Amino acid sequence: MPFIALLVFALLPSLIWLWFFLKRDPKPEPRHMVLRVFLIGILMVVPAIGAQIILNRFWFGLVAMTLMAAAVEEAAKYGAARWGAFGSVDFDEPVDAMIYMITAGLGFAAMENLLVLISPSISGLSMIAGVSGLRFLTATFVHALSAGLMGDFVSLQIFRKKRGLAWMGLLVAALIHAAYNLSIIGLAAQIDNYKYLVYTLLLIIPLGIGILDLIAFAHLKKIDQDG
Prior knowledge:
This protein is mainly alpha-helical. It has one domain (3-226). Helices cover 79% and strands 0% of the residues. It contains nine helices and no strands. It is globular, with a radius of gyration of 17 Å. The termini are far apart. The relative contact order is 0.14.
């Protein structure tokens, strides 16, 4: 499979979700800002992998390791949004924090998708398209929404001057992300006694954080309207 085709299948899930979420912004962000945050999100995969390699030298138990790995990725997405947009003159309304965090998350997910698709175990157009479609509905979705949910906390800290909420948002996002990753691990391990729980988590977690993000969007829009 040509690399350009793999790149398209890696980017497409993120770009579709990015289009969806940008349409929810009543005052669209400048395209160059969105592109910058998206690209930084892609680049932040590198330090995230580096940090995870260091963590893997220690053994804290499966749950703790999964939580720390999720926290590293959520922190990387926050870094992308912070360096790419926070502090800019275009960062001027509460919902912007969610938009830029989601954008960072989707950039991060795009690179992660590419790393999955270039695996030797995945070959052939139908398999690549299937994996890309599955990640569109699961992993890419979770990356965007966990980051967006953290963006709600960040926005409240910045625009409502509530200190410490960004750290709380990081913890919440990491917990959600880790729960999803653990469900994937359970599915891969074919744990028959827990297979129904695993499938339920794969459905409930994206759906649940999707609902939370919708509520958060509405909340931040109301804050903006109320001034």
